[in-house]
Amino acid sequence: MDSYWKEVEGKRLHDPLTQKQKHGHPVPQIWVQGPLIVGVGPSGLATAACLKQKGIQSLILERAECIAPLWQFKTYDRLRLHLPKQFCELPLMPFPSDFPTYPTKQQFLAYLKAYADYFKLNPVFNSTVTKAEWDERCGFWRVKAFVVGKCVEYFCKWLIVATGENAEEFVPQIDGLEEFEGPVVHTSSYKTGGEFRGKKVLVIGCGNSGMEVCLDLCNFNAFPHLVVRNSVHILPHKMLGRSTFGLSMCLLRWLPMRIVDQFLLLLSRLILGDTSRLGLHRPKLGPLQLKNLSGKTPVLDVGTFAKIKTGKIKVRQGVSRLSRHTAEFVDGSVESFDAIILATGYKSNVPSWLKESKMFSEKDGMPRKEFPNGWKGECGLYAVGFTKRGLLGASMDARRIAEDIEVVWKADESALMAFTHSSVLPQSRVQRHD
Fold first, then answer.
1. Which pTM does this prediction carry?
2. What are this entry's molecular-function GO terms (predicted)?
3. What's the angle, vertex CA 307, arms to CA 273 and CA 177, rounded to 5?
4. What region, left, alpha or beta, does residue 227 occupy, with left being phi > 0 and alpha being psi -120 to 50 degrees?
5. DSSP secondary-structure letter at 324?
6. What is the pLDDT of residues 227-273, one digit of tens each?
């Protein structure tokens, strides 16, 4: 093993991360006794809490300066949870009883902070993981990170990827996008329609975010045009006095998914009418079947559809090209706009730092195995928050991961403790994180 560390030392001299350290100061190496979690959104918090309940302390690294940075900095002001709170709570701690059925963004953030405080979770903020790879020689994960601007190398037996499906903004390739002279804003930067009062705005993307942004723009007297590039299921937020999601979950206990889909579509037709007449064509598969197979979420309407019916929101069928002030649509029409909002979603950033391709696809950074089997890889690698099933899916993953690690933890605890005092990781170079 001494030869292994000599090899590591030699590689370090040629490592660009190491070269950024001050001359004569090698990269600090830290042995993490428990799991190392990358990301402290709801998924990372849930996993750390489930582990702690089982007596397993974890180390959480977060590139931002706070918990749940996506919710803190990249969501619009009017955002509420689209599902009832009982389907969005994290493991081991329900929402406060005085919270409304659909908590606001601010209430959800308060819940997450209370969750972290209750379980005494202390993430290491401003810690950007730049590389993580399995080291066959020593049998541990090597994780390099810039921690408050300084490079640190961690060694751990378990690596939990909690950066999620929404780590980076997705910006599609649209011909002429760079030529457009008005503001081009991704929804991650959109806060309120007040910034677009009186302006004609092209909203590209018709998921829940695109629909709600259009409604917000209307409320501030802007003139939104919604680009619907593909077919989409729009369902009422409530059916038969219950949340549509809650009703669906209840029916699935007794009926096949195909029958539940037919029932939901029948009620939607009665409540909303024929959406295709307004340019919103439904997919061939039902909403639940489509969600189950592809992860594509149906839109839960919170008032946008009524604005579409009255003509306050115009539906367009796709952009073929943009120019300085105009958009050309696939039907050949051309129209001028003051601003563009990209409601085009997010993507995983896992391939940029995790040097592993068996569990995660190098193409899209998502687990190769379909739900519910995508949470566990090889060599102590786990994924949480990649189910395309929101907070409910993340909570399921968190529980599974904690249970799986607990089995090995109990079996190997004495061996792990002995390891930290052995000569495998020389004490002169390696610190310990408990």
1. 0.88
2. flavin adenine dinucleotide binding; indole-3-pyruvate monooxygenase activity; N,N-dimethylaniline monooxygenase activity; NADP binding
3. 110
4. beta
5. S
6. 998 899 999 999 999 999 999 999 999 999 999 999 999 999 999 99
